[in-house]
Amino acid sequence: MKLYKSENIIIEKVDKVKCNCCGKDIATDKFGYTSDYLSVEKKWGYGSIFDNEIHSFDICEDCYKKMISKFKIPINID
Questions:
Q1: Cα dihedral across residues 75, 24, 44, 54: positive or negative
Q2: What is the pLDDT of residue 29?
Q3: 3-class state of residue 72 by DSSP
Q4: C-alpha torsion sign, points 8, 56, 43, 46
Q5: Residue 60's closest CA among 29, 32, 39, 31?
Q6: What is the C-alpha separation between 71 and 77, in angstroms, rounded?
Q7: Dihedral sign, CA of 67, 71, 74, 75?
Q8: Given its phi and psi angles, is residue 4 left (phi above 0), alpha (psi -120 to 50 degrees) or beta?
Q9: Hey, which of 37, 54, 61, 65 has its CA 20 to 30 A from 24?
Q10: Helix, strand or coil for residue 34?
């Protein structure tokens, strides 16, 4: 005989994405797909001023465009 028990499982999923720079929501279409954006996660190494911290952020295309326009050395685009 099989005995069953009920279990509640919590699943985390992305509900929405906000740009860390301007604070706007990254657009989502009616099917749940988000517009493209830059997502960064960086684990800083030992001895860095951010010693072993993990930094993560998301940036919309408009803010990314503004950010890279300020670079002294342009990015490589293939």
A1: negative
A2: 86
A3: coil
A4: negative
A5: 39
A6: 14
A7: negative
A8: beta
A9: 54
A10: strand
